[in-house]
Amino acid sequence: MSSWTFILRRMAWSVFALFGLSLVIFILSRVIPGDPARMALGPSAPEAAVTELRRQMRLDQPLPAQYAGWLWAALHGDLGLSLVTMRPVLTDIQDFLPATMELVALAALIELAVGISLGVLSAMYSRRWVDNAIRLLAYLGIVNPAFVFAVMFMLVFVYLWPIFPAVGRVTVDGSLVRTTGLATVDALLRGDLVTFWDALRHLVLPATALAMNGTAQLARITRSSMVDNLGRDYVAMATAQGLDRRTIMFKYLLRPSVIPSVSLMGLQFAALFGNAFLVELIFNWPGLSRYGVTAMLHKDLNAMTAVVLTVGLVFVLANIVTDIVVALLDPRIRLGAGAET
To answer: Domains along the chain?
Structure first.
């Protein structure tokens, strides 16, 4: 089986996974206590209006009929109406997703650059004070959730030492002209360096807080992989030929050692969407995760389902891209795929 056939099979299975996810979240959102129609209209709304909204939402139909109607509409690009914003859910996702994508993208870059660098540095000075310090910091990064770092950064860098802005994406909302929805990219496209710098400063704290846990995990895995590979025969041969330790580490060890880190990064990228919920709330970041929290609190069924499916789609795409990158880094995987029958 060729590599392309393997990828196509993964994509086909991913469609079934998304279908199963939609079924599970649809059922769970309907069995949660509370009447979404009543919550949307308020306690003082007349019963006739609540009954009519239930009918429009198909809540008066059996659950299989509700799911069938929702699935048919979703396949045609209609994810329903949000009871909170009173706009089509698809429009809300298009508005809020870019903000979360920008946040997650910078957090992922921080994880890759800092996490792998710390892992390599720790392996180079294995069992020395540098290694011990990095391992301690990595442990602290793993055991503390993202919202703890968000609160700490808010206290230190906003209130005690005010060098970063507190909340939002830009200081003045009118300065943000939407093209792609990514504030920094839109500012660069317009050549507005002032707005770009402002948007980047707003982005630093939430992205760093979001990246702390993944950075610590990548550092530990990279360090462990490099230390294990130091015992390989080809490293002993390179050492016997007189190559210095730095050349061995970066020329022969780095590429095979980062494969586990890249595999983890695929899952980490998707997990960042889930970890962003509280971070976006703390920094008042107008992203998809905060929109999802609001939908859950108000039992906005259509918005809840759409947010979970969007995150699920990100998981699927991240796994597929990770498989491709790992196959490029490790020729054995490509050979294995080609030899499979």
So the answer is: 89-339 (1.10.3720.10)
